DNA sequence: CACCAGGCAAGTA
DNA sequence: TACTTGCATGGT
Protein backbone atom coordinates (compact mmCIF):
# COMPACT_ATOMS: atom_id res chain seq x y z
CA UNK A 1 0.00 0.00 0.00
CA UNK A 2 3.02 2.28 0.07
CA UNK A 3 3.55 4.04 -3.25
CA UNK A 4 6.48 6.17 -4.30
CA UNK A 5 4.25 9.23 -4.10
CA UNK A 6 3.23 8.36 -0.56
CA UNK A 7 6.88 8.11 0.37
CA UNK A 8 7.40 11.58 -1.03
CA UNK A 9 4.51 12.91 1.02
CA UNK A 10 6.02 11.36 4.14
CA UNK A 11 9.43 12.84 3.43
CA UNK A 12 8.04 16.30 2.86
CA UNK A 13 5.89 16.13 5.98
CA UNK A 14 8.87 15.02 8.03
CA UNK A 15 10.96 17.86 6.60
CA UNK A 16 8.49 20.74 6.71
CA UNK A 17 5.81 19.66 9.17
CA UNK A 18 2.06 20.30 8.71
CA UNK A 19 1.27 23.34 6.53
CA UNK A 20 -2.19 24.11 7.96
CA UNK A 21 -3.77 24.99 4.61
CA UNK A 22 -5.68 26.86 3.21
CA UNK A 23 -4.43 30.16 4.66
CA UNK A 24 -7.84 31.79 5.23
CA UNK A 25 -10.45 32.13 7.94
CA UNK A 26 -13.54 30.64 6.32
CA UNK A 27 -14.75 28.90 3.15
CA UNK A 28 -15.81 32.10 1.41
CA UNK A 29 -12.49 33.80 2.01
CA UNK A 30 -10.74 30.65 0.78
CA UNK A 31 -12.83 30.66 -2.39
CA UNK A 32 -12.09 34.32 -3.11
CA UNK A 33 -8.41 33.65 -2.43
CA UNK A 34 -8.43 30.72 -4.85
CA UNK A 35 -9.59 33.01 -7.66
CA UNK A 36 -7.30 35.89 -6.73
CA UNK A 37 -4.15 33.76 -6.51
CA UNK A 38 -4.30 32.63 -10.16
CA UNK A 39 -0.76 33.10 -11.50
CA UNK A 40 -0.10 35.50 -8.63
CA UNK A 41 2.03 35.42 -5.48
CA UNK A 42 0.09 34.84 -2.29
CA UNK A 43 1.52 37.96 -0.61
CA UNK A 44 -0.23 40.10 -3.21
CA UNK A 45 -3.48 38.22 -2.63
CA UNK A 46 -3.22 38.89 1.10
CA UNK A 47 -3.23 42.63 0.44
CA UNK A 48 -6.34 42.33 -1.70
CA UNK A 49 -8.12 40.18 0.91
CA UNK A 50 -7.19 42.70 3.59
CA UNK A 51 -8.82 45.44 1.50
CA UNK A 52 -11.98 43.39 1.12
CA UNK A 53 -12.10 42.68 4.86
CA UNK A 54 -11.61 46.38 5.63
CA UNK A 55 -14.79 47.20 3.71
CA UNK A 56 -16.74 44.62 5.69
CA UNK A 57 -18.11 43.24 2.43
CA UNK A 58 -16.17 39.97 2.23
CA UNK A 59 -19.27 37.86 1.76
CA UNK A 60 -21.39 36.69 -1.13
CA UNK A 61 -24.04 39.39 -0.63
CA UNK A 62 -21.42 42.01 0.19
CA UNK A 63 -19.28 41.54 -2.89
CA UNK A 64 -22.38 41.18 -5.06
CA UNK A 65 -23.49 44.63 -3.96
CA UNK A 66 -20.26 46.28 -5.11
CA UNK A 67 -20.02 47.85 -8.56
CA UNK A 68 -17.46 46.06 -10.71
CA UNK A 69 -15.09 49.06 -10.78
CA UNK A 70 -15.17 49.35 -6.98
CA UNK A 71 -14.44 45.64 -6.60
CA UNK A 72 -11.57 45.91 -9.10
CA UNK A 73 -10.07 48.80 -7.17
CA UNK A 74 -10.14 46.86 -3.90
CA UNK A 75 -8.41 43.82 -5.37
CA UNK A 76 -5.86 45.87 -7.36
CA UNK A 77 -2.82 44.55 -5.39
CA UNK A 78 -3.61 41.00 -6.56
CA UNK A 79 -2.86 41.94 -10.17
CA UNK A 80 -5.06 41.31 -13.25
CA UNK A 81 -7.64 43.21 -11.20
CA UNK A 82 -10.09 43.90 -14.03
CA UNK A 83 -10.08 40.27 -15.13
CA UNK A 84 -10.38 38.98 -11.58
CA UNK A 85 -13.19 41.37 -10.65
CA UNK A 86 -15.13 39.94 -13.59
CA UNK A 87 -14.26 36.38 -12.54
CA UNK A 88 -15.45 36.96 -8.97
CA UNK A 89 -18.61 38.53 -10.34
CA UNK A 90 -19.18 35.53 -12.62
CA UNK A 91 -18.77 33.21 -9.64
CA UNK A 92 -21.19 35.23 -7.48
CA UNK A 93 -23.75 35.14 -10.27
CA UNK A 94 -23.50 31.34 -10.44
CA UNK A 95 -24.10 31.12 -6.66
CA UNK A 96 -27.09 33.44 -7.05
CA UNK A 97 -28.60 31.52 -9.95
CA UNK A 98 -27.88 27.96 -8.82
CA UNK A 99 -28.08 28.33 -5.03
CA UNK A 100 -30.15 31.51 -4.53
CA UNK A 101 -27.05 33.25 -3.20
CA UNK A 102 -26.63 30.67 -0.41
CA UNK A 103 -22.87 30.05 -0.42
CA UNK A 104 -23.04 27.69 2.57
CA UNK A 105 -25.70 25.73 0.70
CA UNK A 106 -23.46 25.51 -2.34
CA UNK A 107 -20.80 23.86 -0.19
CA UNK A 108 -23.20 20.97 0.49
CA UNK A 109 -23.66 20.18 -3.21
CA UNK A 110 -22.62 16.83 -4.66
CA UNK A 111 -18.92 16.99 -5.53
CA UNK A 112 -19.28 16.09 -9.21
CA UNK A 113 -22.13 18.52 -9.81
CA UNK A 114 -20.40 21.33 -7.96
CA UNK A 115 -17.20 20.75 -9.90
CA UNK A 116 -19.06 21.03 -13.20
CA UNK A 117 -20.81 24.21 -12.06
CA UNK A 118 -17.54 25.75 -10.93
CA UNK A 119 -15.92 24.88 -14.26
CA UNK A 120 -18.91 26.50 -15.95
CA UNK A 121 -17.92 29.86 -14.47
CA UNK A 122 -15.81 31.98 -16.84
CA UNK A 123 -12.55 32.39 -14.99
CA UNK A 124 -12.59 29.17 -12.98
CA UNK A 125 -10.49 26.39 -14.47
CA UNK A 126 -9.48 22.96 -13.11
CA UNK A 127 -7.01 24.16 -10.47
CA UNK A 128 -9.26 26.85 -9.06
CA UNK A 129 -12.29 24.54 -9.04
CA UNK A 130 -10.37 21.76 -7.31
CA UNK A 131 -8.88 24.19 -4.78
CA UNK A 132 -12.38 25.33 -3.86
CA UNK A 133 -13.59 21.72 -3.64
CA UNK A 134 -10.69 20.62 -1.44
CA UNK A 135 -10.03 23.64 0.74
CA UNK A 136 -13.44 25.33 0.98
CA UNK A 137 -15.78 22.34 0.63
CA UNK A 138 -13.44 19.74 2.21
CA UNK A 139 -13.83 17.19 -0.58
CA UNK A 140 -11.13 14.58 -1.35
CA UNK A 141 -10.09 16.21 -4.64
CA UNK A 142 -6.38 16.38 -5.51
CA UNK A 143 -5.21 19.82 -6.63
CA UNK A 144 -2.57 20.16 -9.35
CA UNK A 145 -0.64 23.36 -9.96
CA UNK A 146 2.47 24.69 -11.70
CA UNK A 147 4.71 23.55 -8.85
CA UNK A 148 3.31 20.03 -9.02
CA UNK A 149 4.07 19.94 -12.74
CA UNK A 150 7.60 21.28 -12.34
CA UNK A 151 8.47 18.93 -9.48
CA UNK A 152 7.06 15.87 -11.26
CA UNK A 153 9.00 16.77 -14.44
CA UNK A 154 12.30 17.44 -12.67
CA UNK A 155 12.08 14.20 -10.74
CA UNK A 156 11.24 12.28 -13.90
CA UNK A 157 7.75 11.17 -12.94
CA UNK A 158 6.18 12.59 -16.12
CA UNK A 159 6.90 14.16 -19.52
CA UNK A 160 6.80 17.89 -19.91
CA UNK A 161 3.49 17.78 -21.82
CA UNK A 162 1.45 15.78 -19.29
CA UNK A 163 -1.82 17.64 -18.76
CA UNK A 164 -3.81 18.47 -15.62
CA UNK A 165 -5.83 15.27 -15.53
CA UNK A 166 -2.82 13.14 -16.39
CA UNK A 167 -1.08 14.45 -13.31
CA UNK A 168 -4.19 14.26 -11.15
CA UNK A 169 -4.78 10.57 -11.88
CA UNK A 170 -1.14 9.89 -11.08
CA UNK A 171 -1.98 10.80 -7.49
CA UNK A 172 -5.56 9.60 -7.23
CA UNK A 173 -4.78 6.19 -8.72
CA UNK A 174 -2.43 5.28 -5.88
CA UNK A 175 -3.51 7.36 -2.90
CA UNK A 176 -6.52 6.75 -0.65
CA UNK A 177 -9.11 9.51 -1.28
CA UNK A 178 -8.66 11.17 2.11
CA UNK A 179 -9.17 14.92 2.27
CA UNK A 180 -6.60 15.42 5.02
CA UNK A 181 -3.97 13.65 2.95
CA UNK A 182 -4.81 15.59 -0.23
CA UNK A 183 -4.89 18.84 1.72
CA UNK A 184 -1.46 18.33 3.27
CA UNK A 185 0.18 16.85 0.18
CA UNK A 186 -0.68 19.72 -2.13
CA UNK A 187 0.32 22.27 0.50
CA UNK A 188 3.65 20.49 0.97
CA UNK A 189 4.24 20.45 -2.79
CA UNK A 190 3.71 24.21 -2.98
CA UNK A 191 6.04 24.73 -0.02
CA UNK A 192 8.69 22.57 -1.69
CA UNK A 193 8.28 24.38 -5.00
CA UNK A 194 8.71 27.77 -3.40
CA UNK A 195 11.86 26.77 -1.56
CA UNK A 196 13.55 24.18 -3.75
CA UNK A 197 12.04 24.03 -7.21
CA UNK A 198 11.91 27.54 -8.62
CA UNK A 199 11.59 28.12 -12.35
CA UNK A 200 15.12 29.37 -13.05
CA UNK A 201 17.16 27.54 -10.43
CA UNK A 202 17.45 23.75 -10.18
CA UNK A 203 19.07 23.86 -6.71
CA UNK A 204 17.70 20.42 -5.98
CA UNK A 205 20.89 19.15 -4.34
CA UNK A 206 19.38 20.18 -1.01
CA UNK A 207 15.80 19.32 -1.95
CA UNK A 208 14.19 16.92 0.54
CA UNK A 209 13.08 14.83 -2.44
CA UNK A 210 16.63 14.11 -3.54
CA UNK A 211 17.00 10.37 -4.01
CA UNK A 212 13.31 9.60 -3.48
C1' DC B 1 17.33 45.95 -14.67
C1' DA B 2 14.88 41.26 -15.80
C1' DC B 3 12.28 37.72 -14.08
C1' DC B 4 8.69 35.48 -11.65
C1' DA B 5 4.27 34.35 -9.04
C1' DG B 6 -0.43 28.55 -5.97
C1' DG B 7 -4.28 30.32 -14.30
C1' DC B 8 -7.47 31.05 -17.54
C1' DA B 9 -9.71 32.51 -21.71
C1' DA B 10 -9.54 34.52 -26.16
C1' DG B 11 -7.31 35.12 -30.42
C1' DT B 12 -4.86 33.24 -34.47
C1' DA B 13 -3.84 30.05 -38.32
C1' DT C 1 -6.84 21.20 -33.08
C1' DA C 2 -2.50 23.46 -31.50
C1' DC C 3 -0.02 27.50 -30.41
C1' DT C 4 0.28 32.33 -28.84
C1' DT C 5 -1.06 36.41 -26.34
C1' DG C 6 -3.34 39.43 -22.77
C1' DC C 7 -4.08 40.25 -18.20
C1' DA C 8 -0.88 43.53 -13.86
C1' DT C 9 0.87 44.13 -9.19
C1' DG C 10 4.77 43.61 -6.10
C1' DG C 11 8.89 41.06 -4.47
C1' DT C 12 13.80 39.40 -5.51
> How confident overall, as mean pLDDT?
95
Q: Give the CATH H-level superfamily of the largest domain.
A: Hypothetical protein, domain 2
Low-confidence stretches are none
Helix residue percentage = 55-70%
- CATH fold-level assignment of the largest domain: Endonuclease III, domain 1
Give the C-alpha Rg.
18 Å
Span from first to last CA? 17 Å
Q: How many separate domains make up the residues?
A: 2
Mind sketching the topology for me?
Elements: H1 4-16, H2 27-36, H3 42-55, H4 60-65, H5 68-74, H6 81-99, H7 103-106, H8 111-119, H9 126-136, H10 146-154, H11 164-172, H12 179-196
Helix pairs in contact: 1-12, 2-3, 2-9, 5-6, 8-9, 10-12
The structure holds a DNA duplex (13 and 12 nucleotides).
Would you kindly provide a brief summary of this structure?
The protein has 212 residues and is mostly helical.
Provide a descriptive summary of the structure in words.
With 212 residues, the protein is mostly helical. It is 61% helix and 0% strand. It is globular and about 55 Å long. It starts with a helix and ends in a 16-residue tail after the last helix. The mean pLDDT is 95. The structure holds a DNA duplex (13 and 12 nucleotides).
Notable characteristics:
mainly alpha, Endonuclease III, domain 1, 212 residues, DNA-binding
